[in-house]
Prior knowledge:
Elements: H1 7-14, E1 17-21, H2 26-37, E2 41-46, H3 49-63, E3 67-71, H4 77-86, E4 92-97, H5 112-140, E5 143-148, H6 161-181, E6 186-191, H7 200-204, H8 214-224, E7 230-231, H9 235-244, H10 249-263, H11 265-268
Parallel strand pairs: 1-2, 1-4, 2-3, 4-5, 5-6, 6-7
Helix pairs in contact: 2-8, 4-5, 5-6
Amino acid sequence: MIPTRPMADFQTTYGPWAVVTGASSGIGRAFAEALATRGLNVVLTARREAALATLAEALRQTHGVEARVVPADLGTEAGVAAVEGGSADLDVGLLVASAGFGTSGAFLESDLGDEIAMLDVNVRAVARLTHGVGRRLVARGRGGIVLLGSLVGFQGTPFAAHYAATKAYVQTLGEALHVELAPRGVDVVVSAPGPVDTGFAEVADMQMGAALTPDAVVGPTLAALGRRQTVRPGLLTKVLTAGLSPLPRWARVRVMGRVMGGMTEHQRA
Length: 269
C-alpha cells in the first residue's frame, strides 16, 4: 500500500497546471478528474474536441479549477506542436502521457500503416512531449512525469508484438529518466497495468476477460509518483506479475503468447 501524499504537498510540487494527453476518455479522463480533485488546473488534449469541452466544463463546475482544451492528433507533428504551443504560456508542473492505442494479431498480417500510426502516438509523441515538458520542469526545479506503460512491456508478447514493443520503449525510457531527473527535482513514474476496461480492446480487436477500471490505475499511480520508479496498479496486475516474475524471459514470452493468443483467437477463426 502506497501512502497518500497530502493534497497541499501535491499542489506545491506538481501544480499549478498539468498536461494530460488522451484526456477525452478512459485512463486519461480519469487522470484529469483525479488531478482536478487535487486542485490542479489541467490542459486537456485528445482528438475529440467536443468530449474535451464537456469534461473541461464539468471540472470547472465541480472542482473550481481552470481547464484548457487543446484538440490534437498526437500521431502527427502538428498535433504534438499544438500541445506544446497550447501550454507554453502556463506554469506546467506535471505531464501525464496517457494517450495511446494498441494493435493485435500476427504482426506480418497487420496493416503497416496502423502499426506506424501506433508507433507515432505511443513512442514518438511520448518522446517529444517528455523531452519538451521535462526541460521546462527542470528549469523550474520541480515537477513530475507520468508515463503509461503496460504489463506486456516487460517481455516480447506474441500476437501483440509491436504494441508490446512500444510499451517496452516507454518502460525503459521512464526507468532511466527516474534516475536522471530525480537530482534535478523532477519525479518520474511508469504505470504498468494489466488489462484495463477502456475502449482499448475494441480498437485493438482483442477479447478481454477481467480488467481494471481506469480509477484503479490512476489512484496507485499518483500515489507512487515521487516514491517509486514503476507501479503495477491493481490486484489483477499483481497476480499476473507474480506468476510471470519467477520465469526466465524466454518463458515469459511463451506464456504471454498463449495469453494473447487466446485474446485474439477470433481473428484466426
